[in-house]
Amino acid sequence: MQPEVFVGILSNALFLVIKLVAAIIVPSLIVGLIVSVFQAATSINEQTLSFLPRLIVTLFALIIGAHWLTQELMDFFTGLVMSIPEVVG
């Protein structure tokens, strides 16, 4: 067993986590920025005004991207299972 194999697997796993989380969080961050600019311009300091749009966009991103997210996880797991002979032997 070579340590490089495990480092490669860990690297791929961390990149996958970053990619999947970014697909959900980035739209929410953009909407949060737009809402906070709107709040600063109008001096409205209502907490639900900043929370509700981000929640809706996050749920929408999960609904739209669920198939892609699941497919990415399945591809990674399939690749992991297929690399068992390389890791063991």
Automatic annotation (TrEMBL):
- Annotated localization: Cell membrane; Bacterial flagellum basal body
Q: Give me the segments passing through the membrane.
A: 6-39, 51-70
Which one Pfam family would you cite for this protein? Answer: Bac_export_3
**UniProt entry keywords in alphabetical sequence:** Bacterial flagellum, Cell membrane, Cell projection, Cilium, Flagellum, Membrane, Transmembrane, Transmembrane helix
Q: How does it sit in the membrane?
A: Multi-pass membrane protein
**Is Manganese found in the keyword set?**
no
Q: Which GO terms describe its biological process?
A: bacterial-type flagellum assembly; protein secretion
Q: Name one GO cellular component term.
A: bacterial-type flagellum basal body
Q: What is its main location?
A: membrane
Query: InterPro entries per the record?
Result: Bac_export_3, FliQ
Q: Which PANTHER family match?
A: FLAGELLAR BIOSYNTHETIC PROTEIN FLIQ (PTHR34040)
Question: In which family does this protein belong, per the annotation?
Answer: Belongs to the FliQ/MopD/SpaQ family.
Q: What is the recorded function of this protein according to its Swiss-Prot or TrEMBL entry?
A: Role in flagellar biosynthesis.
Q: What is this protein called?
A: Flagellar biosynthetic protein FliQ
Q: Which gene encodes it?
A: fliQ
